Amino acid sequence: MHVPFCITDSFTSIGNLFVIAFCVNEWMLYIGGAFALLDSTSTTMFRSLISKNVHANEIGKVFSVVGVLFALLPFASGPIFGFLYKSTVSYQPNAFLFLVIGIKVILFIVVYVINIGMRREDKRYEKKLQALDLTSKEEELPLQTKLISESRDNLVLHNVAAKTLANKVTNDESCSGDTN
After folding, report:
1. What is the pLDDT of residues 140-170, one digit of tens each?
2. Is-contact 147 158, C-beta < 8 A?
3. What is the crossing angle of helices 42-53 and 59-88, to 10°?
C-alpha cells in the first residue's frame, strides 16, 4: 500500500519546510533534514500508483503527459518563485517557502482523499469476492464473466480465477488419464 507512504512523505516534507522557513541558526537546518527523511520519494510512489490504477493500454499516454508536465514545471515555477521572492524579500524573504508549504498541504489532502477512496473500493471488492463463493462449478462462469466485465484489474479476483482454472485443468487431465 503506497498511499500511507505518500502521506508520510508529504507530512515530513511540510515539517521540513516549516523548520527551514523559521530557521534562525545553522543547526536548525539539520533538524529540518531529519524531518525530510522521506522527502523526494513521492514521485516514484505516485508513478507506481498511476501504473496500478490506470488501464494497461493507457499507461504510456498518462506517463507521457506526466513527463511533459514535469518538463514544463521549471518554466512556470522559476518566474513565479522569482517574482514572489523579489516582491517579498524586503519584509518576508521566506514567503516562497510558505507557497511551497501550501502546495504540499494541498497535495497531502488530495493523497489522503485518494487513500480513503481506495480503501472503500478495496472493501467493495472484498465484499464482491465473498459473495462469489467458489464451492460449486456453476459459480466459476460468473467469476470469469465478472473479471472480463470489470474495468479495474483486481489481483485477488485474478488469483482466485487462476486457481479455479488450474483446478479445472488438473481435474480434466486426471479424468482424461483415467480413460486411457
Report:
1. 555 555 555 554 455 556 666 666 666 665 5
2. yes
3. 150
Segment (H or E) for 7: helix 3-21
For 10, phi then psi, to 5°, come to -65, -40
Q: Tell me how crowded residue 151 is: count the other CB atoms within 10 A of its CB.
A: 5
Q: How far apart are CA 13 and CA 103, in angstroms?
A: 11
Q: How many residues does the chain have?
A: 180
Measured between alpha carbons, how far is residue 108 from residues 3, 8, 32, 101, 147 in Å?
A: 10, 9, 18, 10, 33
Cell of 129: 469476492
Tell whether the torsion through CA atoms of 29, 30, 32 and 38 is positive or negative.
positive
* Phi, psi angle pair for 42, to nearest 5°: -70, -30
Q: Does the pLDDT value for residue 137 go beyond 70?
A: no
Amino acid at the residue 144: Q
Cell 516534507 belongs to residue: 13
Residue holding cell 511540510? 14
CB 52 within 8 A of CB 20: no
Distance CA 131, CA 129 (A): 5
